[in-house]
Write a structure and sequence with these properties.
Keywords: Flavoprotein, FMN, Monooxygenase, Oxidoreductase. It holds the Pfam family Bac_luciferase. Strand 5, helix 3 and strand 6 form a beta-alpha-beta unit. The chain is globular, with a radius of gyration of 22 Å. The chain has 389 residues and is of the alpha/beta class. The strands form 4 sheets. The protein has an 8-stranded parallel β-barrel, surrounded by 7 helices. The protein has a single domain, classed as Alpha-Beta Barrel (TIM Barrel).
Length: 389
């Protein structure tokens, strides 16, 4: 397939509002804990992920502060950190971004999150209707980008007034850290075309992703720009397809219909996000038809807002599905799985070899070259493999 010869850029996810082994229950759940987030980040760094997405929202740890903490625990891992226009001035965000890029030695990526919950945005003091939020964001990033790229900016706009703003120190990356963004509405795509470097889509069926990529490409080309593309997906990868589907069923095995109904009501009542509506339309709150495309499972979206689909299967099966997305133009994957620490290992150990990704960085030799068989970690160590085996 065209476009599948270059390895994917693979990022993981920091579940900064909490984690767990089952959806819709407190059984085996893990509360938000910065120490646990550091464990995930260190594992992702060692296992060969290029970076991690740190989400934003009222239920999450503050993304810039958490990224600064995790940068101190990691070596090469990049941090895709959210900027939500309106929660602070573009000048203040420019100072945050420049400093975080400097203290992490150039490991910052920026993720524009305009927001799709009117209720949550009202709590942040943002009362603009859906499309107008993107007009506001456009002015915001006129100032932000000028500041972080040149050190000065001036705008007397309808929404943003920044008079002779300055930034004292530049970021490490030139001219600035890359900017990512995801949004499915016409207003979102028109906004993104003039601003971003990488467009992100949630895990919709390939034909829907292809349609969206075409719209974004056309909008960017109309403004003389080119963007690249990424996809946000959950993963349930096991050694066989059967084991993977069993794991998917187990993930929602303690999820009640009442909990599903309550979650879907929140999505309907509190969100004006077009992307969220597209996610809900994949399953419509029903748990009997969750495979919405080959190996694309919408069970997570029964209760999780935002990214609600997972690729389910053996390493070979999931790799084949990812190559279909690559052929459409996807070059970046932002992945997650429940629980995030254990699934980071599974995806790296099982899926990365199928994708041609290197896996763990700087592995330490475990022998002097002879093949060994794991013997359970006893006092005598591992067992040397019989010659020729």
């Amino acid at each position: 397939m065209p476009g599948t010869d270059k390895p994917l850029d693979f990022l993981w996810f920091i579940p900064s509002s909490g984690d767990g082994a089952y959806l819709g229950t407190d059984d085996l759940s893990r509360p938000a804990d910065p120490g646990y987030f550091a464990e995930i980040a260190k594992a992702a760094d060692r296992l060969g992920y290029s970076g991690v997405l740190i989400p934003t929202g009222a239920a999450c740890e503050e993304s810039f502060v958490l990224a600064a903490n995790l940068a101190a625990h990691t070596e090469k891992l990049k941090f895709l950190v959210a900027i939500r226009p309106g929660t602070a001035s573009p000048a203040y965000y420019a100072r945050l971004a420049s400093t975080l890029d400097r203290v992490s030695h150039g490991r910052l990526l920026l993720n524009i999150v305009v927001g799709g919950s009117a209720q949550e945005l009202a709590g942040d003091g943002i009362f603009l209707p859906h499309d107008e939020r993107y007009d506001h964001a456009d002015e915001f990033f006129q100032v932000f980008n000028q500041l972080i790229e040149t050190g000065s900016a001036h705008l007397d706009g309808k929404y943003i007034k920044a008079h002779h703003a300055t930034l004292g120190v530049p970021p490490v990356q030139e001219p600035r850290p890359p900017i990512y963004f995801g949004g499915s509405s016409d207003a979102a795509i028109d906004f993104s075309a003039g601003i971003i470097d990488k467009y992100l889509t949630w895990g919709e069926p390939p034909e829907q992703v292809a349609e969206k990529i075409g719209r974004v490409r056309a909008a960017a080309a109309a403004k003389g720009r080119r963007v690249t593309f990424g996809i946000r997906l959950h993963f349930i990868v096991r050694e066989t397809d059967e084991e993977a589907w069993e794991a998917a069923d187990r993930l929602i095995s303690r999820l009640s219909d009442d909990t599903i109904d309550a979650a879907q009501k929140i999505f309907r009542d509190n969100s004006d996000s077009v992307g969220q509506a597209r996610m809900v339309a994949l399953h419509n709150g029903r748990r009997d038809k969750l495979e919405v495309s080959p190996n694309l499972w919408a069970g997570i979206g029964l209760v999780r807002s935002g990214a609600g689909t997972a690729l389910v299967g053996s390493p070979a099966t999931v790799a084949a599905r990812l190559r279909e997305y690559q052929a459409l133009g996807i070059d970046t994957v932002i992945a997650s799985g429940y629980p995030h620490l254990e699934e980071a290992y599974r995806v790296s150990e099982l899926l990365f070899p199928e994708l041609g990704l290197a896996g763990p960085r700087n592995p330490i030799r475990s022998s002097f070259g002879e093949k060994q068989v794991f013997g359970g970690g006893g006092h005598a160590g591992n067992i040397r493999s019989a010659a020729g085996s």
